[in-house]
Amino acid sequence: MSYIKEYKTYIFLLLFMILSYLSINKASLYLSPSLGKLYYKQMIWYLIGIIFIIFIKKTNIKKIYNVSLLLYVINNVFLLGLFFFGVEINNTKAWFKILNIYIQPSEFMKISMILFNSYIIHSYYKNKEKINKKKELKLIISLFIIFLIPSILTFIEPDTGAIIGYFVIFISMLYISGIDKKWFYKLSILFVLLIIIFVIIYFYEQELLIKIFGSKIIYRIERIINWKSKSGMQLTNSLIAIGSSGLYGHKNVPLYYPEAGTDFIFTSFASAFGFIGSIILLIICFSFDLYIINTITKIKNKENKYTLFGIVSLFLYHQVQNIGMTIGLLPITGITLPLISYGGSSLLSYLILIGLFENIKKEHSS
Questions:
Q1: Strands 92-98, 87-89: pairing kind
Q2: pLDDT in tens, 329-344
Q3: Which helix (H) or strand (E) element contains residue 42?
Q4: Three-state secondary structure along the chain?
Q5: Side-chain-facing half-sphere of 48: CA atoms under 13 Å
Q6: What is the DSSP annotation of 152-191?
Q7: Angle formed by the axes of helices 344-365 and 265-298, to 10°?
Q8: What is the mean pLDDT of residues 34-54?
Q9: What mean pLDDT, rounded, does the chain reach?
């Protein structure tokens, strides 16, 4: 049992590797042959990521927190650099192309945000006697600025899905920071008011909206409207592919849908392996989340606790959002399924987060 406990994370990684391989293999039916065998490339990224996990696990976590500001600044510089050197794919300028390898800075920004947020929250609460409303407001503003800067840079790309990921990190880590929960009622009211103003402008002053956010903002809003009406070829075909898969799935995926290997990877898997396969995938995903949550409850170091909470919040959001959008429960936002969807930057960023988890777990057990 102790052997299984020690290598539990790697057992989960092996299961995710298998799920990823099977999913991308099935999705390859609808991917361009020019992309090559993506499931082999995914395994290479997994091996690179595991090397990162081993390296991060051996690094002093305090040293990582101490360079979190530097990592945050570097990632913002990379986001800014996309406007000058970025490559545009599907109307989104979110990647650097280096030696035929595509690197997406927004994926790594999530890591630096979690680390820097942990560092800031821990710094604010070192002396509990000095906690007051003014200090809590200062903390909220600090974390909001950390969220706002990369969000503006990412919005211009545009990449709405990444911004929502930043927001999840901001809110979840603010929640666990220990501030008075009354702040969340005030923030919720402010958020609702902003949404109402935005909706009014959309319906009555679209020209003003385009001047402020650009013409692509209308397309993004229409994607949400399409979700509400369950229209759009991508969602319609996804629902048919999943709904017709039965208990054991189709031998051949019956319908084409875009982004079969990335955003709609759950559709590829569910269509190929049916209801039973989908349940197994869900059990593995959420068992891993519970594994992290269970570790959080045993951690005494507050800074490490903040980090793990940010990590598991990000995993949960991506899992719920990705699966929810493929079955019509949530809007389509271009979110990948952690550790399963194809993508070098995406996969590597999640494996780095797992490396941080392993580092903290090791420190706690030692």
A1: antiparallel
A2: 888 887 899 999 998 8
A3: helix 38-58
A4: CHHHHHCHHHHHHHHHHHHHHHHHHHHHHHCCHHHCCHHHHHHHHHHHHHHHHHHHHHCCHHHHHHCHHHHHHHHHHHHHHHHHHCEEECCEEEEEEECCEEECHHHHHHHHHHHHHHHHHHHHCCCHHHCCHHHHHHHHHHHHHHHHHHHHHHHCCCCHHHHHHHHHHHHHHHHHCCCCCHHHHHHHHHHHHHHHHHHHHHHHCHHHHHHHHCCHHHHHHHHHHHHHCCCCHHHHHHHHHHHCCCCCCCCCCCCCCCCCCCCCHHHHHHHHHHHHHHHHHHHHHHHHHHHHHHHHHHCCCHHHHHHHHHHHHHHHHHHHHHHHHHCCCCCCCCCCCCCCCCCHHHHHHHHHHHHHHHHHHHHHHC
A5: 14
A6: HHHHTTT-HHHHHHHHHHHHHHHHHTT--THHHHHHHHHH
A7: 20
A8: 88
A9: 86
Q: pTM of whole model > 0.85?
A: yes
Cα–Cα dist 37/92, whole Å: 24
| Single-letter amino acid, residue 17 | M
Residue 321: both structure tokens together: 């959002």
